[in-house]
């Protein structure tokens, strides 16, 4: 075994001086019993002692034995790190039933049961699982190992290398070295001479010699600066701001949330309900991949508050009507993308009608998992509460304050400074997150690149439970418009889409928009055809959504326009993609965006907050680099 500690390791690594950071390994051979890769982690002294977090990259998840053993050791260690993050590769998705069989009578059966409860569906891509209230995090990368490695953005402290899981050639070892933290260790159940030579070429050394090694950072990635004060100010208390605060708290940061309203969720996040669902495209697009990952992450986090009644909603199914498809085309598309039938399946018109409780004449995609609806205001308040923010007590909350200007750090200022219209200081923090929708660009300091954000007015209508002829959908559905049943007996329908700038008069309900929503509801069979909004006083709500041209959120550090111009002026800088752009981050400070969630904000928010926190804290990115770049505020620069 190559490793820093452990009974099966024949060699012991010498302590490293701080001046010579390098990945390290000590030599040894495997035993006949093939000892667990977790032994060096699970056996004291634990490598995570004294660390705020410890990141393990495992090149094979197997049946989860190593992860469960390490999780158990972490639970039993009084000096454990604050957070244990285990990132595992697997060529093929592991079914929950197979995982259950492997641990039914094992030493970690109780932990395995908790893991199985949160186990994701068998779909390619990255899947995050939170355990121990987020203090133990498992990130699964399902797919061809080399491709998954290329999509990872992380810095590992321990590499658990399973040589038998994949042919780890010289190129693969180079990829692994790219992700190594200074002083990272490697553990393995025996290493062939060829692999040992490849590892040595890329900086992994044993205790027989110690050449200097400095891991090469991923080029162009704006790495977080890890300020001494892990404090952030989030401006905006809708879904985006609440999710940013939640993500930062999960990463060990303290977030204060500031909003111009006295209470959270007073803008578009204040509707009575909203849809949560993935989308399906063939071939699989970045949009589809993002919303699938976002819906799964939201469903996992929402399971608890839904079961306790803290948040209203239900994630037990959703129908997406598709009049241009039939069963043959639909099943061919699903099979081509490789999604399991349990996640998304085609239903013919009669089946769709029975599921919805409506007289539908169109077939539909049925999303049975991670789909349904949530109360956006309740979801916002829950995420804020998880971040330690309470608008009632004032803990972590700065309400009723409008930010007029945002000043960047300078010698006499403690980080970024938010000022009101009179020039008075409202708050200061080393890190600021602009999650205030359409107002985000206004607060960008001079010398920043402002991404494209536009405003879309939307109006929803609430149909009273006693409305004559009303049929309540038994599952949320959408086609041309959407409908969902609320716990009050009402049905929420909508929503209009009008590209116009926000103004006070736009908050008033418009009769034409109510009629538009009713016509669409009639097409879904929710109300009788010909029902006119003027015949009844129908309640509703209007607000503005912040949308981007490609309908994906903006999540990441702000681009420094002045630094970019200076680099371009040299004629030598390569700035042909988001990873090469200079950012508004520096020693101990940073300015970030989390906005542009658009009409699918309830689905996107939580994963966007997790992605934002990874940018700030240096945690492993929860999505691959292609998705990270697709949401980067610098994505249109090149």
Automatic annotation (TrEMBL):
A GO BP annotation: methylation
Annotated keywords: Cytoplasm, FAD, Flavoprotein, Methyltransferase, Multifunctional enzyme, Oxidoreductase, S-adenosyl-L-methionine, Transferase, tRNA processing
Region (Disordered): 1-50
Pfam families linked: DAO
Domain of life from the UniProt record: Bacteria
Biased composition (Polar residues): 7-34
Name under which the protein is recorded: tRNA 5-methylaminomethyl-2-thiouridine biosynthesis bifunctional protein
Organism annotation: Sphaerotilus mobilis
């Amino acid at each position: 075994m190559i490793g820093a500690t452990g009974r099966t390791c024949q060699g012991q690594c010498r302590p490293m001086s701080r001046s010579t950071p390098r990945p390290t390994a000590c030599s040894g051979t495997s035993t006949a019993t093939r000892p667990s890769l977790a032994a060096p982690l699970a056996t004291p002294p634990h490598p995570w002692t004294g660390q705020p977090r410890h990141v393990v990259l495992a090149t094979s998840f197997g049946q989860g034995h190593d992860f469960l053993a390490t999780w158990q050791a972490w639970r039993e260690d009084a000096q454990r790190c604050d957070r244990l993050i285990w990132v595992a590769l697997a060529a093929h998705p592991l079914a929950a039933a197979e995982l259950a069989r492997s641990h039914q009578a094992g030493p970690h059966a109780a932990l395995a049961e908790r893991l199985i409860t949160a186990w994701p569906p068998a779909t390619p891509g990255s899947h995050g699982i939170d355990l121990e209230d987020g203090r133990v995090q498992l990130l699964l990368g399902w797919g061809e190992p080399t491709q998954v490695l290329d999509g990872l953005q992380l810095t590992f402290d321990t590499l658990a290398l399973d040589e038998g899981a994949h042919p780890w050639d010289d190129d693969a070892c180079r990829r692994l070295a790219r992700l190594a933290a200074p002083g990272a260790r490697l553990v393995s159940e025996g290493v062939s001479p060829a692999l040992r030579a490849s590892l040595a070429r890329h900086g992994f050394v044993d205790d027989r010699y110690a050449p200097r090694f400095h891991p090469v950072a991923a080029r162009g990635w704006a790495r977080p600066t890890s300020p001494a004060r892990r404090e952030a100010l989030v401006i905006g208390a809708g879904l985006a701001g609440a999710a940013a605060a939640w993500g930062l708290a999960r990463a060990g940061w303290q977030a204060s949330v500031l909003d111009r309203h006295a209470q959270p969720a007073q803008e578009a996040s204040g509707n009575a309900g909203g849809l949560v669902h993935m989308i399906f495209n063939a071939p699989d697009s970045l949009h589809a991949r993002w919303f699938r990952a976002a819906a799964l992450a939201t469903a996992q986090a929402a399971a608890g508050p839904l079961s306790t009644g803290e948040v209203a909603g239900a994630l037990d199914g959703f129908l997406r009507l598709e009049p241009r498809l039939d069963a043959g085309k639909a099943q061919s598309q699903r099979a081509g993308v490789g999604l399991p039938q349990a996640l998304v399946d085609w239903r013919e018109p009669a089946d769709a009608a029975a599921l919805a409780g409506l007289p539908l004449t169109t077939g539909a995609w049925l999303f049975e998992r991670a789909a349904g609806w949530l109360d956006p205001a309740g979801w916002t308040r829950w995420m804020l509460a998880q971040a330690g923010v309470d608008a009632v007590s004032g803990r972590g909350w700065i309400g009723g304050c409008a930010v007029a200007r945002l000043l960047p750090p300078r010698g006499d200022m403690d980080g970024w400074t938010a000022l009101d219209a009179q020039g008075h200081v409202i708050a200061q923090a080393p890190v600021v997150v602009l999650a205030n929708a359409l107002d985000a660009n206004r607060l960008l300091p001079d010398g920043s690149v402002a991404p494209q954000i536009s405003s879309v007015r939307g109006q929803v209508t609430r149909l009273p439970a006693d409305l004559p002829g009303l049929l309540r959908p038994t599952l949320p559905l959408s086609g041309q418009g959407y409908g969902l049943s609320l716990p009050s007996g009402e049905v929420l329908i909508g929503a209009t889409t009008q590209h116009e700038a926000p103004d006070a008069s736009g908050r008033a309900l418009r009769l034409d928009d109510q009629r538009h929503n009713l016509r669409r509801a009639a097409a879904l069979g929710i109300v009788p055809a010909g029902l006119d909004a003027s015949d009844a006083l129908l309640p509703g709500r209007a607000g503005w959504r912040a949308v981007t041209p490609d309908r994906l959120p903006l999540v990441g550090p702000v681009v420094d326009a002045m630094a970019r111009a200076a680099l371009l002026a040299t004629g030598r800088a390569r700035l042909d993609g988001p990873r090469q752009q200079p950012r508004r981050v520096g020693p101990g400070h940073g300015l970030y965006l989390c906005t542009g969630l658009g009409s699918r904000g309830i689905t996107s928010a939580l994963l966007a907050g997790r992605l934002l926190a990874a940018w700030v804290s240096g945690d492993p990115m929860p999505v691959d680099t292609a998705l990270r770049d697709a949401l980067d505020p610098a994505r249109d620069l090149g």
